[in-house]
Specification:
alpha/beta, five-stranded parallel beta sheet, five-stranded mixed beta sheet, 26 helices, 18% strand
Length: 791
C-alpha cells in the first residue's frame, strides 16, 4: 500500500529587516513573499531585485564556458566557410526536442536547412538516448562532416570514436553526467564542468544549445536575419519541462522566455504558428510556467512516447506553414490523449503488482513487464515514487524469440527518484549488469539484459540499504497556512513573483485547515475528436469558516467518491485558470481533520483489515472472533464505490457488529473478453430459455450495476431483449450480426452506434477494475476516516 506521507509545515518566519527589503522592491507584498524567499534560502538583498525581475538581472556571457565554447565556434565558422554539411543530433524528450529546434532555427541563420544543415533524433521506442552507430551511418551517407549534439552525447565515447572513423567531427552540447576523462571531441560544452555556484551551472540541454547559438550571434553579428530573442520561447519550454534547478541564468532565461511565449497566443505578435496552435488546443495563454508543465511539455513529450519518432515535433515548433502546423498540432493533441489513457492503464497494472511485494523490505521498486508501453514508464515511475516514497524503476521487456540466441533480449525503461536519493549513482553502481544508462540524480533511463533484471533489483536494493538504515519516510513540505478567504487574486499575484517554479523552487504548497467540500463532480477528459480519455478529474467548491464565499478547485486523476464528506485538512497549489477566467486550487493532498482522529481510533476495533490474507488465516481469525463472543460481518467482494462500501458500514452498525474487509483483488479479465462473455451468456439464455439472477451475472462478469446496465443496453443493439422476471433476468432474441467486435476497436461491419455502445461498456469495465484496485490498496486509515465521515 502507499506509504503515509508526513506533512511538514514550515514555521520559520523572516526577520523584519528582510520583510522591509522585499517590501521596498514589491510595495504590494503582504509578507508572504518575504517568508517564502527566506525559507528557500534566497536571502541576499543585493540579488533580490534580479531574482524577482529579469530586467534587473545581468546574464552571463556564453564564453564563460571558456575554451570549449571558443573551440565550438571556431569549428562552426570553419564548416560555414567550407560549406560543410552539419548535422544536429537531438533527443526525443521536451528538452531535447526544443534544443534541436533552437539549433535548427539558430544555426539555420548561418547554414542552409536541408542542404548544409540536417537534424537527427533517435526513436524513443526502438533506440536509446544518445549517439548510435545506426544514426551515425545514416549521417555519413548524407555527407555529414560535423555533428552538433544537444541534450546528449557526453558519455557516448564508443560512438564518438565511430564518428571519427567516418570522418565526422563532434561538438557536444549537453548537461548530463560527465565521463571520467574528456571525450575526443572538438568541444564539449557542459555546465557540469563549472562550479556548482556558477550562474550557468544548472542549464538544461536547450539552454546550453541556446548559449552556443548566442555565442555564434555575437561572433558573426552581421549574418543572422532573425533576432536571437525569438528563440527564447523554445528555451522556456525545454527548461521548465526538464528536471533542472531554476536558478541563475537558468531562471533568467525561463523568465524572459515566458514573456516571448506569451506572444504566441496573440495573432499580431505570434511568430510560431505551431506553438500558437498548441496553446489554443490546451486552452492556455503562455503567460505561466504551468502552461508549459501541464500544457505544452506533456504534449511535446507525448509524440515520442506514443509514436516513437519525434522528428515532426521539430517541424511543429519551427515551421511557418500554418496549415501544416495545425495538422501536426492535432496529431500531437491526439497523441497526448492516448498518452493519458496509457499512463492510467500502466499505473493501474503497476499498482496491482505492488500488492504482491513486501514493501517493508523494499527500498527500490523494480518491476518489469513485456506489455508495458515504454514511452509512459517514466511518467508512471514518477507517480509511484511519489506515492510510495521509494525510488522506482519500471522496465519494458523484449519477448523471447527465435533470434534470442543471436541477440540478448533487453529490458528498457525509466527510473525516478524521491526524497533526495541520487538515483543516477545508485544505477551507476550496477553498471556491470546494464547495457546502457544515463540521466540525472532524480531521473534516469536504462537498458539491461532481461536475464539480469532480478539480480539488478536485488543488488540495487542492497546498495540503498547499505546507504540508508532507517525507513524511508516521504515528506510533503508545506510553505504557508492560509484560509479560504485569503485565496484569490492578491495572494496569487504575490506567489506568482516566485515563478518560474521547479526544482529548488517548488510551487508554494498551501495548507487549509478545517475546511470542507461542496458540489463535487467528476468527468472523463475528452480528446480533440470528442472521444473519452480514460483520465479523470474532479471539480469542487471549497469552504471554511473564514468566508461565506466558496472557492473553486480541481483534483486531477481522482474520483468524487474519494473526497471526504466532513471537515478535513487540505494541501493545495493556487493557480489561475485563464480558460475559465478564474483563480482555483489544485489538490496536492487531503486528510481527515486532526480533530476527527478520535473518531478514527474509535473505529479501529469495529473495522478490521484482513485484505490479502489467505483462507486459512482468515478462518483462524474468524475462530478467534467467535471465541471472544463476536460474530463480525465479512465483506468478501471488492466494492467499486464508497456508496457501495457504506451499505456494509451501515449494516454493520445497525446489527452492532464489527466489519471485516477480507477481499482480494481478482485477476482482471481484458474488457473485451468480458464483453464476449456477456454476449455468450445472452446467446445461451436465449437458446435455453433459462434465467440468471443479477448477482449471478455480477459475480460471473465481475461488474458493477452501472456496467451491467450498459451491457444490457448494448445487447439491445444486437437484437437481444432483456426482461426482468421473478427476481431474475431473461434474455431472448438472436444477434442480428454475425460479426461482434472482438478487438480494441469495433469491426468495420459494426454500426457507429453499436461501436460507441461497446466502447462505453468497455470503458465502464475498465473503470470498475480501476476502482477495485483502489479499494484493495487504499490504506485502512483512509477507509476508517471516510467510514466515520460518511457512516
Amino acid at each position: 500500500m502507499p506509504q503515509a506521507i508526513q506533512w511538514h509545515v514550515q514555521t520559520s518566519g523572516s526577520p523584519d529587516w528582510f520583510v522591509a527589503a522585499v517590501k521596498q522592491i514589491v510595495p504590494t507584498s503582504q509578507g508572504y513573499l518575504a517568508q517564502l524567499l527566506w525559507q528557500r534560502g534566497i536571502q541576499n538583498i543585493d540579488q533580490l531585485a534580479g531574482y524577482l525581475n529579469p530586467a534587473e538581472y545581468v546574464p552571463t556571457s556564453p564564453f564563460a564556458f571558456g575554451e570549449e565554447m571558443h573551440h565550438a565556434i571556431a569549428r562552426l565558422k570553419q564548416a560555414r566557410r567550407n560549406q560543410e554539411i552539419v548535422a544536429i543530433w537531438g533527443d526525443f524528450d521536451a528538452d531535447g526536442v526544443t534544443a534541436t529546434s533552437v539549433l535548427w532555427d539558430g544555426l539555420g541563420q548561418f547554414f542552409t536547412p536541408q542542404e548544409t544543415l540536417l537534424y537527427y533524433i533517435p526513436n524513443r521506442l526502438t533506440e536509446s538516448h544518445g549517439l548510435s552507430r545506426q544514426g551515425l551511418e545514416y549521417l555519413h551517407t548524407k555527407g555529414c562532416r560535423l555533428i552538433v549534439t544537444c541534450d546528449t552525447g557526453s558519455t557516448n565515447l564508443e560512438e564518438i570514436a565511430i564518428a571519427r572513423e567516418f570522418g565526422m567531427d563532434v561538438v557536444v552540447t549537453d548537461h548530463h553526467t560527465l565521463p571520467s576523462d574528456r571525450p575526443p571531441v572538438v568541444a564539449i560544452i557542459n555546465p557540469r564542468y563549472l562550479e556548482a555556484t556558477h550562474p550557468l551551472a544548472s542549464l538544461s540541454g536547450v539552454a546550453v544549445a541556446y548559449k552556443l547559438v548566442e555565442a555564434l550571434y555575437e561572433t558573426l553579428p552581421e549574418v543572422p536575419q532573425k533576432p536571437l530573442v525569438e528563440l527564447l520561447d523554445l528555451v522556456a519550454i525545454g527548461l521548465i519541462a526538464d528536471l533542472v534547478e531554476l536558478k541563475g541564468d537558468c531562471r533568467y532565461l525561463a523568465q524572459i522566455g515566458i514573456e516571448q511565449l506569451q506572444k504566441q497566443s496573440n495573432s499580431i505578435t505570434m511568430t510560431r504558428p505551431g506553438v500558437a496552435k498548441l496553446l489554443e488546443f490546451c486552452k492556455r495563454t503562455g503567460d505561466r510556467p504551468t502552461d508549459i508543465s501541464f500544457g505544452l511539455g506533456p504534449r511535446i513529450n507525448a509524440v515520442s512516447r506514443i509514436q516513437g519518432d519525434a522528428h515532426f515535433c521539430v517541424e511543429l515548433l519551427t515551421s511557418q506553414d500554418a496549415h501544416l502546423c495545425t495538422q501536426l498540432a492535432e496529431a500531437t493533441e491526439l497523441a497526448n490523449a492516448r498518452r493519458k489513457a496509457l499512463q492510467k492503464e500502466v499505473a493501474q497494472q503497476v499498482t496491482a503488482r505492488l500488492t504482491q511485494l513486501d514493501l517493508s523490505t523494499t527500498r527500490v521498486i523494480v518491476l518489469a513487464d513485456e506489455q508495458w508501453q515504454l514511452g509512459v514508464l517514466g511518467l508512471v515511475a514518477g507517480q509511484i515514487a511519489q506515492e510510495y516514497g521509494r525510488p522506482t524503476i519500471l522496465l519494458s521487456t523484449e519477448p523471447q524469440t527465435s533470434n534470442s540466441a543471436l541477440r540478448t533480449p533487453l529490458a528498457r525503461g525509466s527510473a525516478r527518484s524521491v526524497n533526495n536519493i541520487d538515483l543516477y549513482q545508485l544505477v551507476k553502481g550496477q553498471a556491470h549488469l546494464l547495457h546502457r544508462f544515463g540521466g540525472h540524480p532524480f531521473a534516469a533511463g536504462l537498458s539491461l539484459p532481461v536475464e539480469n533484471v532480478l539480480l539488478f533489483a536485488e543488488s540495487i536494493n542492497q546498495e540503498l540499504r547499505q546507504i540508508e538504515t532507517g525507513a524511508i519516510a516521504p515528506t510533503l513540505q508545506i510553505d504557508l497556512t492560509v484560509t479560504v478567504a485569503e485565496l484569490g487574486k492578491e495572494l496569487f499575484q504575490e506567489l506568482k513573483l516566485l515563478e518560474p517554479c521547479g526544482m529548488g523552487n517548488p510551487s508554494p504548497k498551501l495548507l487549509i485547515q478545517n475546511c470542507w467540500f461542496e458540489k463535487a463532480w467528476n468527468k472523463n477528459i475528452k480528446d480533440r475528436r470528442g472521444g473519452k480519455v480514460q483520465y479523470i478529474k474532479t471539480e469542487f467548491e471549497l469552504r471554511d469558516d473564514s468566508t461565506e464565499q466558496p472557492f473553486p478547485g480541481v483534483w486531477w486523476g481522482h474520483y468524487r467518491d474519494e473526497i471526504p464528506q466532513g471537515r478535513c485538512d487540505l494541501v493545495v497549489e493556487l493557480d489561475s485558470n485563464t480558460y475559465e477566467r478564474r483563480y482555483e486550487v489544485r489538490i496536492v493532498a487531503v486528510r481527515p481533520q486532526e480533530s476527527m482522529q478520535t473518531q478514527d481510533s474509535m473505529l479501529a476495533d469495529d473495522l478490521l483489515d484482513w485484505r490479502g490474507l489467505d483462507k486459512t488465516t482468515i478462518a483462524a481469525n474468524m475462530q478467534q472472533q467467535q471465541v471472544a463472543g463476536r460474530m463480525p460481518l465479512v465483506l468478501r467482494q471488492v466494492p467499486t464505490s464508497w456508496t457501495e462500501f457504506q451499505v456494509w458500514v451501515r449494516r454493520a452498525q445497525q446489527e452492532q457488529r464489527s466489519l471485516v474487509i477480507a477481499y482480494t483483488l481478482p485477476t482482471p479479465q481484458p474488457p473485451m473478453i468480458i464483453w464476449q462473455t456477456l454476449v455468450g451468456i445472452a446467446k445461451y439464455l436465449s437458446r435455453t430459455g433459462q434465467t440468471a439472477t443479477r448477482q449471478q451475472l455480477l459475480d460471473k462478469l465481475e461488474l458493477s450495476d452501472h456496467a451491467l446496465q450498459l451491457g444490457f443496453k448494448t445487447l439491445a443493439l444486437l437484437n437481444f431483449e432483456v426482461q426482468h422476471q421473478d427476481q431474475a433476468f431473461a434474455i431472448t432474441g438472436e444477434a442480428i450480426r454475425e460479426t461482434i467486435p472482438t478487438g480494441s476497436a469495433p469491426s468495420i461491419e459494426s454500426t457507429s452506434v453499436l461501436s460507441e455502445a461497446v466502447q462505453d461498456f468497455l470503458n465502464a469495465v475498465r473503470e470498475d477494475q480501476f476502482r477495485r484496485q483502489y479499494f484493495c490498496q487504499v490504506p485502512i486509515t483512509v477507509i476508517r476516516a471516510l467510514a466515520s465521515f460518511q457512516g
